[in-house]
Automatic annotation (TrEMBL):
<dbReference type="InterPro" id="IPR016181">
    <property type="entry name" value="Acyl_CoA_acyltransferase"/>
</dbReference>
<dbReference type="Pfam" id="PF13673">
    <property type="entry name" value="Acetyltransf_10"/>
</dbReference>
<dbReference type="GO" id="GO:0016747">
    <property type="term" value="F:acyltransferase activity, transferring groups other than amino-acyl groups"/>
</dbReference>
<protein>
    <submittedName>
        <fullName>Acetyltransferase (GNAT) domain-containing protein</fullName>
    </submittedName>
</protein>
<dbReference type="InterPro" id="IPR000182">
    <property type="entry name" value="GNAT_dom"/>
</dbReference>
<keyword id="KW-0808">Transferase</keyword>
<keyword id="KW-0678">Repressor</keyword>
<keyword id="KW-1277">Toxin-antitoxin system</keyword>
<feature type="domain" description="N-acetyltransferase">
    <location>
        <begin position="1"/>
        <end position="166"/>
    </location>
</feature>
<keyword id="KW-0012">Acyltransferase</keyword>
């Protein structure tokens, strides 16, 4: 994915979302009908990938999150003295079908991770809830690990993010 093919901007209700289709109805419906309400309620921030014609070609959301220590793999959990750890949830990541397989998903993931790195708050890890095995494999390519209770719930420790992106 060449960065010049698109730019990532904060959610803008002026960008047409009606024709966006990633092939997963839940993600399509979210960007078309729900995201603006979640933003108004300050539940999430949405970042949109748009092409040179200002068409929506992808998006992702970021939210505050906390993870119970007991849900982590034992080797990770023993390092922390608190019952809950601060995290960021990358709640949704979707790419329009016209751009799938061209690297935009990885580009959006990296953009999100860089945004998280610039936060001036303590964050243990980034969490995602993969929709299916295909999504799990996608995140696995970037180093995300499954949690023991649900192998579609994955996390990437911030130490790993820092070492990969800085």
């Amino acid at each position: 994915m060449k960065e010049s093919l698109c730019r990532v901007v904060p959610f803008n209700k002026e960008i047409d979302r009606t024709v966006f289709s990633c092939g997963i109805e839940e993600l399509d419906r979210y960007i078309k009908k729900q995201v603006s309400q979640d933003i108004k309620r300050n539940l999430t921030k949405c970042h949109m990938a748009v092409n040179s014609d200002n068409d929506l070609i992808g998006y992702y959301t970021l939210s505050a999150f906390s993870v119970p220590l007991r849900s982590l793999p034992e080797d990770r959990a023993k390092k922390y003295p608190y019952p809950l750890l601060p995290a960021v949830l990358l709640g949704r990541l979707a790419v329009d079908q016209s751009m799938q397989g061209k690297g935009l998903g990885g580009f959006l993931l990296q953009d999100g991770l860089l945004r998280i790195l610039t936060l001036d708050i303590g964050v243990f890890a980034v969490f995602v809830e993969a929709k299916d095995e295909t999504a799990k494999r996608f995140y696995g390519k970037y180093g995300f690990e499954s949690i023991p209770q649900n192998d579609l719930h994955l996390f990437l420790p911030m130490d790993t993010v820092k070492s990969c992106l800085i």
